[in-house]
Amino acid sequence: MTSVKNFRVEQHPDDDSLGRGAFVFTDDYSVFDWGKMPDAIPEKGASLCTMGAFNFELLEDAGVPTHYRGVYSDGEVVGVEEAVAAGDPPTEMAIDLTRAPELPVTETGYDYDAYFAATGSHVLVPLEVVFRNRVPVGSSLRERRSPASFGLSRAGWPDEAVDVPETVVEFSTKFEKQDRYLDRTEAARLAGPADLAELEALARDVNRVVSERAEQAGLVHQDGKIECLFQDGDLRVADVVGTFDENRFAYDRQQVSKEVLRQYHERSQSEWVEAVSEAKERAATEAVADWRALCGPDPQPLPADVVRRTRDLYCAGTNTYLDTDLFDAPPLDEAVAAVRRFS
Question: pLDDT tens-digit profile of 19-74?
Fold first, then answer.
C-alpha cells in the first residue's frame, strides 16, 4: 500500500458495505516522497502501530468516528491497552475497509468524476487534510506562504519553529503522482460528496485530541494530517493518525518525528536531496508522471549509529506518549540528546 506499511484484505468491501482488513507496519521509512529507503529502523513499525492505535482509541473516547477496530495480539483483535499489558508491541492494526479505486489520468489531467463513479455508498476521500499549530524548520508551508499571511510581524521565516496564532488547515491531493496543495474551491470539487467544512472540523477535532495528549506527555504537537472515508453521508477518520511518521512532535525544542531523518539527509546527502527537488520540478514542467525516473543519484544507507539512535527516539517517544515501558529504550531526554548530536 505504502512504502512503510502493507495492506491485508480479509473481507472485500462491496457497493453497500465496508470490508475488513489490516495495516501491517514495517520498519521501513521514506523521506521526500522517495518511497522505501535503503535502511530499516528496528521496531519502528511496532512504534507506529502502537501509537496510532492509542490515538484511535483516544479519538473514539472523544466521540470522533474512525475506521479502527483494534490491534492483533496472538491472532486476536484486542484493544491496544491489552496488547501493551501483555508486553506485546503490535505490528498489525485491524480496520474497516472502504473503496479507493484507481484515479484515472486522461490527456486533460486526473479524472475525479470517474473516481467517484467507480464507488458505491462509501469511498476514501482523495484528499489529505493537513493541520498546523506550529511551523517548524522543514515545513513546506514556509515555501508557500509568508509569516505575514498568518498575522505574524516577521519579514521572513527564522531558523526555528514558529507558533501560529490559530491552527491552519489546508488540503492536498492524495492519489496524484506528485502531491499538490489546493485552494478551497478545488478542494471542495475533489472532495466529491464529502463536505469540506466537515472535513476541516474533523481535522480540528483530531488535532485537539492529539495535542492534548502530547501536552500531557511533555511533547509539543506541531502538525499532522488526516485522511477520511465517506459512507452514506458520514465521515470517519481513516489511515493512521498521530504517529511520528504522520505528525511532527517536539521535545525540548528537538524534533521527535521522521523530520530528524529528513534533516539528516539534507545535511549528509544534500546532492541527493537537491536532485529530488530538481526532478520533481522537471516532472511538473514536462508532465512526467514518475519524477523518480528523472532523479540521477539514489539515496545512500545510513550509518549504523544513526539507525540505532533513530530507533531509540521512536521507541522512547512512544513509551512517553503512552506512559508505558513497552519498548526497551532509554528515557526520552536521553534519546533526544543522542539525535540532537546528528540532527
Answer: 999 999 999 999 998 999 999 999 999 999 999 999 999 999 999 999 999 999 98
Helix (H) or strand (E) holding 313: helix 304-322
The answer to whether the CB of 299 falls within 8 A of the CB of 306 is no
Cα 8 from Cα 317, distance rounded (Å): 27
For domain 5-268+303-340, which CATH number applies: 3.90.1140.10, 3.40.50.300, 3.30.470.20, 3.40.50.970? Answer: 3.30.470.20
Quote the DSSP letter at residue 28. Answer: B
289 by Cβ neighbours in 10 Å (0-12 / 13-18 / 19+) ranks as exposed
Residues 6+ away with beta carbon under 8 Å from 137: 159, 160, 161, 263
Cell of 45: 513499525
- Name residue, grid cell 453521508: 233
Record the cell numbers describing residue 214, joined without a space.
502530547
